[in-house]
Amino acid sequence: MTTSDALISARSLTKRFDPFVAVDGIDFEVRRGEAFGFLGPNGAGKTSTMRMIACISPPSGGELRVIGMDPVTQASEVKARIGVVPQMDNLDIELTVRENLEMYARYFDVPREVAGPRIDDLLDFVQLTERSSSKVEPLSGGMKRRLTIARSLINDPDLILLDEPTTGLDPQARHLVWDRLYRLKQRGVTLVITTHYMDEAEQLCDRLVVMDKAKIVTEGSPRDLINRYSTREVLEVRIDDEVREKLIAAMQGSVDKVESLPDRVLLYTENGDATLASIHEQGFETVSALVRRATLEDVFLTITGRSLVE
Amino acid sequence: MNAYKVVARNRIVYWRVWRTSFFLTVLAPVMFLSAMGLGLGSLVEGDRAFGGLDYRTFFATGMLAATCMQTGVFEATYPIMAKIVWQRNYEAMLASPLSVRDIFLGEMLWVGVTLAQLAIPFFAVMAAFGIVDSPMALMAIPAVLLVGMSCATVVAAMTASLQTDEAFTWLFRLVVTPLFLLSGTFFPIEELPEWGRLVAQLTPLFHGVELVRQFMVGSPSLTTIWHIGYLVALFGIGTVLGIRAFEKRLRP
Ligand SMILES: Nc1ncnc2c1ncn2[C@@H]1O[C@H](COP(=O)(O)OP(=O)(O)O)[C@@H](O)[C@H]1O
Ligand SMILES: [Mg+2]
Question: What is the pTM of this model?
Answer without folding.
Answer: 0.92
